[in-house]
Amino acid sequence: MKKSGLIAVLLVGMMMLMAGTVMAGQTVLEEIMAAGKIKVSTDANYAPQSYLNDKGELEGFDISVAKEVAKRLGVKVEFVTPDWDLITAGKWGKRWDISIGSMTPTAERKKALLFTMPYYSSPAQFAVHKDNTTIKKLSDLAGKKIGVASETTNERYLEHNLKIEDVKIVYPDWKPGELKTYPTDANHIEDLALGDGVRLDAVFTSRQTLAAAIESGCGKGCPIKMIGEPPYYEPLSFALDKSRPNSETLLARLNEILKGMYDDGTLVKLSMKFYKTNLIPKLQ
């Protein structure tokens, strides 16, 4: 090889090495902006958060939030649907950049993931039969038979042993007369719908679950009504892979975007669209 050719090869090699060094030093935000695309992991079977519509397209609250985030970043969005345990385990290996999938930032998950500020919440909510006239406030539930799904945060709350990361739990100064557990929320809602005090005096679940049940009519009619304010809210956040270097700038930018979506009412609008109720105000 001629000397000039050798020099040219060495120069090309040095340029490639320098380019690689620059790429290695890029922040995750810079990588996304350079690619012009953000990869978002979500669930394809989690309505109304995320689901496949009749056209086979992803739709739902989380999907709309992700699209809005991408828009405000100035990039396109690509969705992937890995198993939930793979998402919460971290070490994604750049297979996706962010999880927008209604994730609660627990202490255990924080070992592997970074979390944004909450973008909405799951408020716990009591409900009684529409015919009931004696239970007007939460303290009136003392001594009553309350239905709840087993192994849930709601059951733990009524048993006074609930712990949610970064959430102060204030327990009621009253106790139910009987706590009746069910496999799912749908089961105790159905029992309450049978009549006031027939099987239950009240139920305890999430506000969006009750709103969806009332909206759909519980199959054959849903004569129930919500009472009182939610006793606690479970925060839900975006998640990033903690093992991916230089993620802090992306985390900060996502929090800026979320703050903007709070301020201009976008999150409230999407909450009303998909949940028929406002799951946003307690997060501000």
Q: Structural class, judged by helices and strands? A: alpha/beta
Q: How can the largest sheet be summarized?
A: 9 strands, mixed
CATH class of the largest domain: Alpha Beta
Order of helices and strands: HHEEEEHEHEEEHEHEHEEHH
Q: Distance between termini?
A: 68 Å
Query: Residue share in helices?
Result: 25-40%
The pLDDT mean sits at 88
CATH topology of the largest domain: D-Maltodextrin-Binding Protein, domain 2
Number-wise, the strands total: 12
Q: Report the principal-axis shape.
A: elongated
Uncertain stretches of 5 or more adjacent residues: none
Strand content: 15-25%
Under CATH, the homologous superfamily of the largest domain reads Periplasmic binding protein-like II
Number of helices: 9
How many individual domains?
Answer: 2
Report the radius of gyration as a whole number of Å. Answer: 24 Å
Characterization of the model:
The chain has helices at 3-24, 28-35, 61-73, 84-89, 153-158, 185-193, 207-216, 248-263, 266-275; strands at residues 37-41, 45-46, 50-52, 58-59, 76-80, 98-103, 113-129, 145-149, 178-182, 202-206, 224-227, 233-241. It starts with a helix and ends in a 9-residue tail after the last helix. The radius of gyration is 24 Å and the shape is elongated. Strands 1, 5, 6, 7, 8, 9, 10, 11 and 12 form a 9-stranded mixed β-sheet that branches. The protein has a 3-stranded antiparallel β-sheet with strand order 2-3-4. The protein has 284 residues and is α/β, with parallel strands linked by helices. The protein folds into 2 domains: 27-120 and 235-283, D-Maltodextrin-Binding Protein, domain 2, CATH 3.40.190; 123-233, 3-Layer(aba) Sandwich (D-Maltodextrin-Binding Protein, domain 2), CATH 3.40.190.10.
